[in-house]
Amino acid sequence: METLKNFSIMFLGLFLLISSTLLSLTSGEIQRYQFVIQATPVKRLCNTHNRITVNGMFPGPTLEVRNGDSLEVKVVNKARYNVTIHWHGVRQMRTGWADGPEFVTQCPIRPGGSYTYRFTIQGQEGTLWWHAHSSWLRATVYGALIIRPRLGESYPFPKPNLETPIVLGEWWDANPIDVVREATRTGAAPNVSDAYTINAQPGDLYKCSSKDTTIIPIDAGETNLLRVINAALNQPLFFAVADHTLTVVGADATYIKPFTTSVLMLGAGQTTDVLIKADQRPARYYMAARAYQSAQNVPFDNTTTTAILEYKSSKKGNAPKPIMPSLPAYNDTNTVTAFSRSFRSPRKVQVPTEIDESLFFTVGLGLNNCPPNFRRSRCQGPNGTRLAASMNNVSFMLPRSISLLQAHQQGIPGVFTTDFPGTPPVKFDYTGNVSRTLFQPITGTKLYKLKFGSRVQVVLQDTSIIAPENHPIHLHGYDFYIIAEGFGNFNPKRDTSKFNLVDPPLRNTVAVPANGWAVIRFVADNPGVWLMHCHLDVHITWGLAMAFLVENGVGELQSLPAPPSDLPLC
Ligand code: C2O
Questions:
Q1: What region holds the Plastocyanin-like domain (predicted)?
Q2: How far apart are CA 483 and CA 506, in angstroms?
Q3: How far is the CA of 314 from the centre of ligand 1 (A)?
């Protein structure tokens, strides 16, 4: 009897041991970080400014985790601004409270306050990033989030010798918060930036920048996995490396069927993983980024940022100037189209084919007539108006006293309505010569309600109001398949036949073609309130956003849990 008992205890012990090792193999680790938001002196373009940073670092710390890991990031706000942090592209399954957009999923962290973001990476591998989601703080509050395969698993391509984040940014020789405040006051377009940056350095084509230029050393024959992130506030960017071919293997933390290219275009918010092989004559080669400017007759920052890919065996000392890549013309939409049409999933994927919600959203700019009580100085947009932007003619306004997610969960009325239109309230020739009477949007905090599990298609249609433009539309809490894109007005009779339901790419941000459209599909399997917006911050400022309210499904596993106890109060 006793032996039998001992035996069963031993057996139970063994069982527990095996199952706990299995569990630790599959469920990942907890990675803890502390982010102190603080003003830090930063010198760029000959001038020193106090800029808001994380832990005094610019760019902020790179987070390196594995698929399956959980993150706990304690954010302590020692700055004089309200702040929140968004984990761009993280699916946040049932952890909407950790998503971060100010007044959408949380009230901001006040100066002196703190909040711990807790979430798990589930099934995502590649490159994402994090950034402030409050006013224009993300101009300097951003960094890379690298997700490697689970322990014991490997990349679906040969292991590179090196891995380097390439974070593209945008720098103002002024306080970016003042830049946006001024634009909000006047109603005019904000000043464009003074430089682009690679890993926070403008590079040696700018004044006072040569000794700080980012250098990326490589040995002949080696391969480097460049994790390119477009963290610029307001600009889609081209990126190329002189004389080197890039092999695209991933984007937005999903793998892509590899293809080669000499140039990348990243909409603001997008990431692209590329392999680069040191197979050229040992020398120094510029990697460079500059604007893709799809809107015509609109001022933009036309400067070029550079870093240097330096073969270790190349002559140091009085080395000749690095070789410059040729970048496409600023307005080269053909290159952008060819590039974005090269994206495929590596294999056949499960695209929803039955659709429960077929939506059509216009995205574009607008003009608000000047309110009678406004001074002229506050109406500096075209012809004495104020610039605006909208989706389906609704210019999105954030609540001020509570977040949308809290209002939803606690059933607080009067914060938002759920009447966001599923189709444009007025149909017109979106990409034609639009009548001035259609320029003025309405303002509102309108959400679109989705039943848990509903299969959603959204046609995103650019408009030519004021200026057609390539809009990087980002959806929080989800990845979506981009099943088609094209130019002109979307026409279901003609364009449905172009849908790729076999191997479309899965992404969190789609660059909607200027004067064109893109079609995305996803399944609403993550309850909560999820912002969808243009990732050009100037356009969010003007209202180019909406939010989905995804209802709970059945039972705990399909429902949003209660908020964490340290969720900031308004
Ligand atoms: Cu990277 Cu709502 O944004």
A1: 37-150, 164-313, 420-552
A2: 9
A3: 40
